[in-house]
Structure formats: structure tokens, C-alpha cells
């Protein structure tokens, strides 16, 4: 797998079948599928690659299944992934352990780079360090402004895919679509630690739940510990950083403290739980986190992003044959069945997590009814075949 896109083509060509904004898992997988279908694809990313991202980096069985289905079954391993076998939850000094049917921990920098590399190998042109903005629609094309810090230019696309993650702000000048952010939404935060502590061995997601949110810890193949947290915004009032809050959550959960956690270089996100409606506009479709996201407790965001990146391909192929306004609703329906429908479990988990007594009840029940727990885990980890709107 290589990581060289022809810079001349990406920089000079001014008309594309598809411009995809955002090179996370959703954008990269859509780029790969559309390039394979013969479309000319420009994938634009505002950061230099590889770039890190606030994310636990846990791929569940469903994410691995989508990769397998497009011939990238070994990609996570090649990107330095390491298997995950169990989930350890701590809350109020009690601990529960669940066996997981499948999973792999990856560093998002390497994983996303490998995915973009696979898209490039399929014919995608990649433009990093470039911020894209949908400028103005006309009947046949959309114009997209590309700004790399020194120069700006405009390209045309027959279809634009917005895969810009949580930072999506809608499109200036267009009434829709816009993201509705849930009240009291938590924010995300993450950091890497060179911690050798034997209290947090590899192969396990260590999840501590406290009053102000939760912290997940996973050991990467290179030995570093990756911490990712969802934190209630009021916990950060008065300038408290995520480090001290994460440390408090570990202690409340009864997990051992981790040296360096408080002073680590944490990166934060905007509010996490949000929903975008409708999922597009004229010649524009929205996917991945940009289409809506729910807190990361169940660790499914990458699977949702990959599934939407795979499922959008036939819709865009139809759009390239002939744009119909109804394609936006068709994509909305597919997305609902594939992703939004499944986000409801995660939404329920977020409600439970805010009430310690419910956490104890839920995990107590899980220990008593292992068959039901196994079924839930199996469902969360199974990739669905492609569904299309009728
Ligand atoms: C704390 C936390 C922990 C998480 N843990 C997990 C986990 O363990 N497992 C899991 O499956 N999911 C997890 N997630 C969720 C997961 O990170 C996301 O769901 C996933 O990254 C979504 O992929 P995406 O492609 O939609 O967006 P992203 O991965 O966010 O990619 C969007 C890309 O678009 C680029 N971009 C944005 N605007 C522009 C622009 N104007 N021009 C050019 N480029 C632009 C960004 O730089 C970014 O690279 C977690 C999330 C959080 C916050």
C-alpha cells in the first residue's frame, strides 16, 4: 500500500465527478468505493496526514466486517492494530468484565492514513493541508473553494460529499442542512501516555465511569496507553482541564491513578451528540459524524462512518448518472436504517451512564443473563449487508 497521490493532478485539475471533504473513515471509504466505480474523485483534508484525532481507536467487529467486505480485511493489522478481547467497566468501586466477540485497537493516525492510502491506490486524488468550503451551487455543478494557507482556488464537482466529522458547521449561505446539538451534550477529549502501569494491560478496554463522564483506556501495539474521555461541559468550568477531570473519574470508579494523566497533552472536541437534517442539498450528501453522532461509550463511531462510506457509493453513482432531488431523502432513509437506527442503543447507554444506580442494575443484569448480553454484543459487532432504499 502506498501513500502517494499524484500532486499535479490533485492541484491542477479543476473539474471532478466527486469532491469529498474530510479524509476520516467515512470520506476515505467513500472515496475508495467511488474511485473503484470509475468516478474521478478528489479527497480534500484540512490537516497534514498522518494526523491524530480524539478517538478511543477501538474497531469493533462491525468495523472490521465492513473493511473485510471491501477487500481491506488486513488493513487494521497492517496499520499496527492489536486485538481487543475484553471490556472492563469500573464504577463506584465495583468492577464488571465482559468478553468481546471481536475488536482491534488502532492509533487513528496510522489507521486513517492506511485507509487514505487504499483510496489512493484505487485512483483517488488526495489533497492534504487544504480546507474546503462549498461555495455556490449551480444546476449542473457545485463549486468548492480550496484554501491551503497560501493560495485559494475553486474547483467544480458534480457531487460533493461532506464527511467533515463533528466540526461540520453547515454551509455558509445555504439555509440547510444544519446540525442540532443535544442539550447537555458531553465533549470529547483524548491523550496518549507512555505509561507502563501493569494495572492497564493490553487487549482490554478499561472504562471508568464517574459523575462527570467516563474515561476509556486502551494499550496500543507500541506500548502507549491511549485515553479517550467524554466529559460533561460543566466539569470544565473555571478553566479545569480534561486531565484533572479524567483523574477524578478514574478514582471515583475505583481504578488506580495513572501518573502523567493530569499533565498530559489533551486534545478536545466540540459537543458530541448532534443530529443533522436533512442529509444533503442540491448535489450534496452528508455522511459519517457530520450526519449525526451519539456519545462514544459503545465505541461504534468508526463502524458507523465506514458503513455510511460504503453505503453511499451506489447513491452517488446514481447521482452521477442523473441528479434527482429525491436522492437526498433516499440517502436519509438508507442512513437511518444503517446508522441512526443503531445509534438508539448508544443513546440509551448514555442515559444509563448518567445514573449510577442504573449502571449497577444494567451490569448486574448482564452478569445474571449472559445469553442476552452475548446477543447484544453480537448485534453490535455484526456488519449488515448493504441496504438500499426502494
Ligand atoms: C472521545 C471519543 C472517543 C471515541 N472512541 C471511539 C472508539 O473507540 N471507537 C469508535 O469506533 N469510534 C470512537 N469514536 C468516534 C469516532 O472517532 C468517529 O465516529 C469517527 O472518527 C467518524 O469518522 P468521520 O470520517 O465521520 O469523521 P472524522 O474521523 O472526524 O474525519 C473528518 C475529517 O474531516 C476533516 N475536515 C473537517 N472539515 C474540513 C474542511 N472544511 N476541509 C477539509 N477537511 C475537513 C477533519 O480534519 C477530519 O480529518 C470516539 C469519539 C470520541 C470523541
Structure overview:
- With 390 residues, the chain is an alpha+beta fold.
- It folds into 2 domains: 7-57 and 107-183 and 273-351, FAD/NAD(P)-binding domain, CATH 3.50.50; 84-105 and 186-271 and 354-384, D-Amino Acid Oxidase, Chain A, domain 2.
- The protein has 10 helices and 21 strands.
- The protein has helices at residues 7-12, 25-36, 61-69, 75-78, 108-121, 242-253, 301-321, 326-353, 356-368, 370-381; strands spanning 15-21, 41-44, 58-60, 82-83, 86-91, 94-99, 103-105, 125-127, 131-137, 142-147, 152-162, 178-181, 187-193, 204-210, 213-219, 225-231, 267-271, 274-277, 280-281, 284-286, 292-293.
- Strands 1, 2, 8, 9, 10, 11, 19 and 20 form an 8-stranded mixed β-sheet that branches. Strands 6-5-14-15-16-13-17 form a 7-stranded mixed β-sheet. A 3-stranded antiparallel β-sheet has the order 3-7-4.
- A hairpin with a 2-residue loop joins strand 5 (86-91) and strand 6.
- Helix 2 (25-36) runs parallel beside helix 5 (108-121), helix 3 packs parallel to helix 7 and helix 7 runs antiparallel to helix 8.
- The two termini are 37 Å apart.
- The model is unreliable at 386-390 (pLDDT under 50).
- Flavin-adenine dinucleotide binds next to helix 2, strand 9, strand 13, strand 16 and helix 7.
